[in-house]
Design a protein that fits this description.
The longest helix has 33 residues. The chain is an all-alpha fold. Strands 1-2 form a two-stranded antiparallel ribbon. The protein has ten helices and two strands, in the order βααααααααααβ. It is 68% helix and 2% strand.
Length: 274
């Protein structure tokens, strides 16, 4: 008797892919509406109400997680690993809160997504951010955006090439490069979630509903440079440093745990005498 097949705790079947595409499309609209909606549209006219409207993304996120889990037949071992990693990520997040964007949870998320695949990665990222919000009291209309952005971040690591073959220094460099760029991308999309609702707090960089696209784009870039560049840089650099120093050990531990759990292993029986 021998195990066969790849070990992915959460497979991306047709229903899961469709749900992820749907949530991705709504997420793009939720994050990017200041640049997508015409100045005279109803969305721009009700800019201050939009965060509560798009907070409905939480319902879709839960639906995606449920669809992914139900279609993959997530077993108890995968659920246990999901719980352990989500708890670890949620516990790591407060350690760097308020300290120049030093957030060690991103390091754990990117390595977990790499080993456990895009399906598990999206579920893990979303659940971790949800658990972290409950742990730190950070529940609000921004939470669905954080869940979606972290789900994308962790899923992207699972989509990196060479999952079955690439190992060693080359793999760590690739993961580090992804973590560096994705840390900035996470900060940028989260800026989009809050920037339109600044009102009169910063008139020179605030969103103006009736302004042309080029004007608002310039204001947003200025806003990012002035308010979050240091935080994003700290997050990106720490992710790279932890990946290069601890990545090999963590990857080895995650892969060993995955093999021992035998996720999705299909049992085949050898013919007598084979």
């Amino acid at each position: 008797m021998s195990p066969a097949g790849k070990t992915r705790p959460v497979r991306l079947g047709p229903r899961s892919v469709a749900a992820l595409v749907l949530v991705g499309a709504v997420g793009v609209a939720g994050f990017g509406w200041p640049f997508l909606a015409p100045p005279a549209s109803a969305v721009s006219a009700h800019a201050q109400d939009a965060p509560w409207l798009f907070a409905g993304l939480l319902v879709l996120l839960v639906a995606v997680v449920a669809a992914t889990i139900s279609e993959s037949g997530l077993g108890p071992k995968a659920v246990a690993m999901l719980g352990v990693l989500a708890a670890a990520g949620a516990a790591l997040r407060p350690l760097g809160a308020g300290t120049a964007g030093l957030e060690p949870m991103f390091f754990l998320m990117v390595l977990s997504g790499r080993v456990l695949g895009p399906g598990f990665g999206f579920v893990l990222g979303s659940v971790t951010m949800f658990a972290s919000a409950l742990l730190t009291g950070g529940v609000g209309p921004w939470m669905p955006f954080q869940m979606l952005a972290m789900g994308w971040f962790t899923m992207g690591a699972g989509l990196l090439p060479g999952a079955e073959r690439l190992r060693g220094r080359a793999e760590l460099l690739m993961i580090s490069a992804y973590g560096f760029l994705a840390a900035f991308a996470y900060g940028t999309v989260m800026n989009l979630a809050g920037w339109p609702f600044m009102g009169e707090l910063a008139s020179n960089i605030a969103f103006v509903p009736d302004a042309p696209l080029a004007t608002n784009l310039a204001r947003f870039v200025t806003y990012c440079l002035a308010t979050s560049l240091g935080w994003d840089l700290g997050r990106a650099v720490l992710t790279v440093v932890l990946t290069l120093t601890l990545g090999a050990t963590v990857l080895k531990a995650l892969r060993r745990a995955t093999r021992r759990a035998a996720f999705e292993s299909q049992v085949t029986f050898d013919a007598p005498g084979a």
